[in-house]
C-alpha cells in the first residue's frame, strides 16, 4: 500500500513539473504587444474573450483570429485604423493564444442578421479559412489572410466568399512553397496583395519574430498599409 502511494506521489510530481515547464515555455514563447500597441489597446473595450474597436457608424464587423502565441493587443494599431474607417474590429482571445482551440469563435461574435468578415494572421488565418469553409451563415461575406494560406480543410474555392490575401516580401516565417501550392484552395477572384519591405511579425506589433526576415520598412508603415488594404477591400465587400 505504501509503495502504491509512493508511485502515485511520484507520478503526480512528474505531472506537476511538466505542467510548470509547459507554462514557463508558453510564457517565454508568447509574443507581447509593443508599447505603441498597448497604448492603442487602451482605447478599446475588452473582456476575457474579445477586444473590440468599435466604429462610430458600423458598416460591417471584422472578426480577427490572432497568430500563434501572439497576444491579441499586438494587432491594436491597424485594428483601430480600420475601426476609424467605419468597421468594428473584434480581436478574439484564444486559450493559450492558439486559434485552433476555438475555430468557430466567430459564431458568437458576428451579431444577429449582420454582415461580417473573418480574417487571421498566420495560424489564425488558416483557422479563419477553416471557419469560412464550414460556415453556413449567409451573413458571412468574406475571409482575409495575413501572412497565411488556406489548407484543404479550409478550402474556399467552392464558396461565394470574397477573399483577400496579404503577404509581405521579407516574410521568412510563411512557408512560401505551401502558400503558392495552396492557392488552388482559394477562389479564382481572390485579391492578392504584397507589402514590399514588410515581414511576418509586422502584421502585428510585437517585435521581431523568431526566424523572420528583417523588414526594410517601419512597423508603423506596415500597420498603415495593412489597414489601407483591408479598408479598400472592406469597402468593396460591404456594398
TrEMBL record:
It holds the Pfam family Abhydrolase_5. Coiled coil: none annotated. Keywords: Membrane, Transmembrane, Transmembrane helix. InterPro entries: AB_hydrolase_5 (IPR029059), AB_hydrolase_fold (IPR029058). The chain crosses the membrane at residues 7-28. One of its GO terms (molecular function) is hydrolase activity. Residues 62-223 form the Alpha/beta hydrolase fold-5 domain. This is Carboxymethylenebutenolidase.
